Amino acid sequence: MQSSRRLFLRGLASVAGAAGAATVASAQHENHTVPAPPVASVGARTGRPAVAAIGGEQILPGVAQVVTPDVPKMPWRMENGVKVFNINVEHVRTEFVPGRIVDAWGFNGSIPGPAIEVIEGDRVRLIVENRLPEGFSMHWHGLEIPFEMDGMPGISQELIPPGGRFVYEFTLKQNGTFFYHSHMAMQEMMGLIGLFIIHPQRPHAPQVDRDFGLVLQEWAILPNNTIPNSLAMEFNWLTINGKAGPATTPMLVKLGERVRIRIVNLGMDHHPMHLHGHQFYVTGTEGGRIRTTAIEPANTVLVGVAQARDVEFVANNPGDWHFHCHLPHHMMNQMASMVGPTMMSHANMMRPGSMTSGLGIVEGRATGESSGAAFGRDINIGATGDQPVPNMPLGRTPQATFMQPGRVEAPNQGMFPGYPQDMFMVMDDMVAKPETYGLRRGWSGGTMGMMTIVRVLQPDLFDKIQELKAEQARKVTQL
Ligand SMILES: [Cu+2]
Is 364 exposed, middle or buried (0-12, 13-18, 19+ CB in 10 A)? Predict the structure, then answer.
């Protein structure tokens, strides 16, 4: 108990350290990545710092605010009855799992962008500033707004040039789960999307106690590279709110509560999102609320590209339940489970020196007897030199000692491209945070790729984690 508490606190310290580093990174970013403003056709940069949020504390009395794990809310200020948002489109350096640094594009320092959370009937003004090195325009996906505000370059407006601004303003006539994104296709694959959640003025019945918002994205990032290849069709990193499992922050609910999860997908694949331990009802699409007589039970909902789905359920089954895309390749990072067995440095399967040396195959055919029965997955037919390779240590008490803060050398480091998050993926301590408190030791070995966890907690554990979160917030503030 003592030692697990110590490890947990150590995890907190690394979280606090990361927060400090992020501040420095964003300060540097201010100074060198903003291109020199050219003559802007739609307004000039003002250089005005972002105004601190005054909104977002409470959306509507008695209505649960939407929780977007790992993603901030978009701050706004009220000006003459209009909610005003400043949205900067810019390079963002982020981290999918500890050690997997990614340089992509996002909004206000976040990938996906901060979640906009507003109310039906609101008038909103969205001041979009393009800090990319190329033209940009913003589309408000699913919103019924004046044509000039639709963000279609060439059709409804000119591209916003690098350094330029465009002010979008409209009144919200709908409610539901919407999103905002670049309308340049390749920019979508560089990360440019964010949630746009509109609450109804009167909540739908039955009201939910917890409301969560998730953005699904996929990325093709070669080993030893930090920049996504937006042309590639083979995706090796799958993220929920910009994190890959096990770095995705679990969603916490109290036993018996009614829960809504809103899921949005923008990428090249559709994601069948599956919840363990419960049945849910699909209550909304990207077009709004589904009428009550049409909802049906399920535990997997297909969230197609450009779609949104709201699901609701009563969390009546205590436990830590996976919520994940069920496409096998999307349930891991770097497809480590598939390529792993062919990359073991035994038999005649040498580990690759590079991607061009052919996934470790140095002689014969990929499917030849000497290479095992099948490329990618040895089923012990014809393979004499291979051996079973699990995703995580075998045995009743997993030894979660491979990757810990301060000790980055794992015994198998370097055997696989894209270390860490390789064959032995137990990294509980590297991703420790209050929300993971009390998870079974070794849990992180089974949570990869587009996976997260819904924790249906007894009230005392739920309250304990809230205390830990408050304690962590105090520590970060003191820095
Ligand atoms: Cu998927």
Answer: exposed
Q: Is 461 exposed, middle or buried (0-12, 13-18, 19+ CB in 10 A)?
A: middle
Q: What sign results for the dihedral spanned by CA atoms 88, 133, 228, 193?
A: positive
Residue 354 CB contacts under 8 Å (≥ 6 apart), including other chains: none
> What is the Å distance from ligand 1's center to 213 Cα?
17
Does residue 322 surpass a pLDDT of 80? yes
CA distance 468 to 470: 5
3-class state of residue 2 by DSSP:
helix
In whole angstroms, what is the distance from residue 166 CA to residue 149 CA?
Answer: 10
Cα 272 to averaged position of ligand 1 atoms, centre (Å) = 6
Please give the distance, rounded to the nearest whole angstrom, from the Cα atom of residue 325 to the centre of ligand 1.
Answer: 5
Quick: pLDDT tens for 405-446: 333 344 554 444 444 444 456 788 889 999 999 999 888 888
pTM for the full model? 0.77
For residue 340, report the distance from its CA to the centre of ligand 1, in Å. Answer: 20
Report how far ligand 1's centroid is from the alpha carbon of 445 (Å): 19
**What are the structure tokens assigned to 198, written together?**
């509109």
Cα 268 to middle of ligand 1, angstroms = 10
Which residues in 1-24 are b (16+ Cβ under 10 Å) and which e?
eeeeeebbeebbebbbeeeeeeee
CA angle 15, 18, 20 (to 5 degrees): 115
Do 199 and 117 contact (CB within 8 A), yes or no? Answer: yes
Confirm if 204 and 255 have CB atoms less than 8 A apart: no
